[in-house]
């Protein structure tokens, strides 16, 4: 388990789950007409994925600049998500 985490493969597994989640949402929307479209939760999922990639960089000895880039992208996606969810008057 330690190797699974330290190698960053745990992040790869979680990212695969996120991709599967988007696929399931898409299938439910297209074939059953239920749930949000696959793009609706995209900013939230993108923020989470970017945070995971920053974690992967930290676990595997990535450069601080790459980690900073992923964190900046996560913050931008988070702001987009907040803007989309903010109530309109």
What's the arrangement of secondary structure elements?
Layout: H1 2-6, H2 9-32, H3 42-59, H4 64-85
Helix pairs in contact: 2-3, 3-4
Q: How many helix segments?
A: 4
* Whole-angstrom Rg: 15 Å
Into which percent range does the helicity of residues fall?
A: over 70%
- Name the poorly predicted regions: none
Distance between the termini: 50 Å
What is the subunit arrangement here? single chain
Please state the average pLDDT score. Answer: 93
Strand content: under 5%
Gross morphology: flat
Largest sheet report = none
- Total DSSP E strands: 0
Q: What does this 3D model show about the protein?
A:
There is one protein chain. The protein is mainly alpha-helical. It contains four helices and no strands. The protein has helices at residues 2-6, 9-32, 42-59, 64-85. α2 packs antiparallel against α3 and α3 (42-59) packs antiparallel against α4. The longest helix is centred in the N-terminal third of the chain and has 24 residues, at 9-32. It is flat, with a radius of gyration of 15 Å.
Keywords for this entry:
single chain; 89 residues; mainly alpha
